[in-house]
Amino acid sequence: MSRKRVAVLISGRGSNLAALIRAARDATYPAEISLVLSNRTEAAGLSIARTEGIANEVVDHTVFGADRSAFERALQQALDKHGVELVCLAGFMRILTADFVNHWHGRMLNIHPALLPAFKGLDTHRRALEAGVKIHGATVHFVVPETDSGPIIMQGAVAVREDDTETTLAARVLAVEHRIYPSALRLVASGRVRMRNARCQISDAVVPAEEFIVPKA
Ligand code: GRF
What we know:
- The protein has six helices and nine strands, in the order E-H-E-H-E-H-E-H-E-H-E-E-H-E-E.
- By secondary structure, the protein is an alpha/beta fold.
- The structure holds 5-O-phosphono-beta-D-ribofuranosylamine.
């Protein structure tokens, strides 16, 4: 089976990019990271791509001003040039237009640092702590035009501790992100994920039986 050609779109640190690259080192992994695209020249994730010898390009959104379509045409050009089949957004901090998102329907994934549909948008860890949730986590989903709203592919949860701060909670959720993003991409790239309206069906899904109760009495 040929490996799916994946582009990872970043704006910053790139720790999820690093997790995807690590997973794809395994020759049996059904996807390869063919391109790293950043909208910011100073994104730290670009140096990860360079160190790994992965093709990387910057499409600087500021050059296009308010013309989102022109920015996206430049993104699309880079994706086409590298024969990209799947797109993973990994801390990519630009809103994409419905046209671009619809073009990649069922072929573009995002990772969000919360258990969607709770805490869409920014500052998810602060808002989770404020809301007093006992279980928090991360979600990999297909991208649809409405932000943080597409069909859910995989979620991972952590227990919220009484003494958690935004920083400690974020660190535990990030460790979960680094596990679920490569796993979710594996499912999609190997053709095990079907979108049915607003939901994903996963063939041969292994679903643990345990309940996750926080706190323990
Ligand atoms: C992650 O928390 C991800 O869930 C969110 O942006 C952050 C990106 O971190 N979408 P990194 O650049 O992958 O380290």
